[in-house]
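quick one, 574 residues, struct below
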Amino acid sequence: MPDVPAVVEATLEVLNPDNSRRSARVTESPFLIGRGVAGNHLQIPDPRISRNCAAIISEGGRHFIEDRGHRLGIFINGERITKQVLQEGDVVTFGLENACQIVFHSATIIPAMANAPVPETTIENFLTRIGQIAPNELSSSGLGKLNLLLEATKLLHSQLPLDAVLEAMLDHAISITNAERGLLLEADSSGTLRQRLARRAGNVSMSAAGFSPTQTALRMAVERQSGVITEDLHLGDAALQGAESIIAQRLRAIVAIPLYAMTRANTEESMVHVKRGQFLGVLYLDSRRPAAFSKLDRQILDAVAVQAASILDNARLVERERQRQRLEQELSIARDIQQALLPRRFAEFPHLDISGINTPCHAVGGDYFDVFPMSDGRTAFVIADVAGKGLGAALVTTMLQGALTGVTLGADPVRVFDHINSFLCDHAEVGRYATAFFGILDREGNFDYLNAGHPSPIVVRRGEVIELFTEGSFPVGLIPEAEFAMARGTLEPGDMLVLFSDGVTEATDPEAHLFGVARLCEVLAGQEHTPLDNVQKRVVESVETFSRGASQADDITLLFVRYRAATQIAESGA
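---
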C-alpha cells in the first residue's frame, strides 16, 4: 500500500464581525475555504467572498495558504499574497471591511478560544519540560516552587488585566529566587529598555523610578543573549564586582534574564523547533544577601522567564491588533466621508441624464467625480485622479473637490486650476499631483472644458464612438509653469459623454494584459438609446469579466452624461 503523506494538524480560529468565534481543525490537504457549502471544508457565509477563495496545503510539515481566485485577494497580516507559509498567529483577511478574519494556530499551540476550557497542566508535564530533576532536589521547598510555576502558567490563560498578570509573575520570580526586589524591563521598537514594573519581596509594589538595576548586568545579559545569574557577587565576574551601582547598593546576588518571543521554524527534516524571535525585555532580580540556586531553581526560573516573555509577546500582539483595528476604524470613517462627498443622487436636469460610479481599490481612493449646477443655468462636470493611493491621495481629492466647487460662486475655472497647481507645487512635500477633466455644458450643447492631463472623454454619437475633446495641459501640481486654458466643443442631441479614470482602461487580467481604450469603446458602441445606469453596469461587468479576479492597482471611476437638445425639452413639455 503506498504511503500517504501525513497532514500536520492545525487550528483555524474564525473571528466573525459580530465578535463571535469558532474554530476548525485542518485535517486534510488541500483544506478548502470559501462561500460555497459544496466542496469547502470551511464555509464563510459572506456573499462578498468567492465560492472557492483559498486553500491551506500541508507540505513537508508546514502549512501554506494559497489564493484560489478571490477577486479582492487573500491577505496575511495586511499583505496580499499568492501563496505563503503560515506562521503561528498569522491573521488571514479577504480585502473586505467588516468581514471575518481567520487566525492560524499551529498544532503545538493551544489557542485560548472563547468559552473553551484551558487544559490542566500537571507537575509531570513541567518536569518533562524543564529537564530531569534529581530526586534529592524534590524537597517540600522544591515542590512549592513547582507549584508557583504552575500558578504562573495559569496566568497565561487568565482574564486578569495585563499589569496584574505581570505583577503576579514578577512576585513568583521573587519568591522562587528569594530575591529582595524584582524589575521587569520592556524593550521598545529600537531595543532600548524601559522600566515597566517593579516589586518587592512579599508581593509589595514599589516605584520603578526608585529602582536602579545594575546596567552592567543588563548589558551582559543582552549582549550574551543568555541569563546572568550570580549567587555571590564577591565570587562573581570582575566586571560585576566593580560596578558602581552594585557597590553603592551593597548587592550580593543578581539575576538578569533576557526575554525573547518564541517562533517556530521547520528544519530540513520537517521537524518543528522553537527558536528565539524578537527581543522583548529583561527580567531582573537582586538581593543584598548571597543566594544558593539549585538546579531546580534555575530551571524553574528559566521557565518563569519563558512565561513572562509569552505574556509580553501576547500583549505586544494584542496592542498591534488594537492599532490595526483603530487604523481600520479610521480608514472606515475616511471612506464614509469620502463616499458621502460624492454625489449620491443627481439633480434633475431637463436637458441631461447623468450616472456615475466610484470604486476605490483600497478603503479610500484617489479618484472622485462631481456634478453641480452653475448660477447661470449651466452644469459643471469634473473627474479627477490623484497620483498614489490610500489616505494621502484621499486627502488631496477632498481638497480638489472643495476648491473646484468655487466655480459655482462665479470663479474663473482657469484661475482656480492655476491656484490649485501653484498650491500643490509650492507644497512639494505633499508628493501628490492630479489629473482632472472639468467641463461646463449649457442647454444649447455648448461645452467649455479644461483638461489637466486626464484621459480624453469618449462621445457616443448615433451609436458610434468618437473622441472630440482632446485639447489639454499638464496635471495640476506637477509643473509650476504649466498654463491652463478653456477650450470649446459642441454636443449634439442624443450624445453620450463618457468620462473615466485610467483605472478603467488600465485594469489588468491575470496575464497582466490591459483592458484598454479599444475594449471600452467596444462596450460603448451602439448604446445611444440604452439607459445610462445600464450602460454603466455593462462597463463595470466587462472590466470585472476581463480581469477574472486579478488584483487591481487603481481606482475605477466613471461618469456618464447624455445631452438632450432644447427643442426636445420643449416638445416633451419639460
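The first strand starts at residue 10 and ends at 15.
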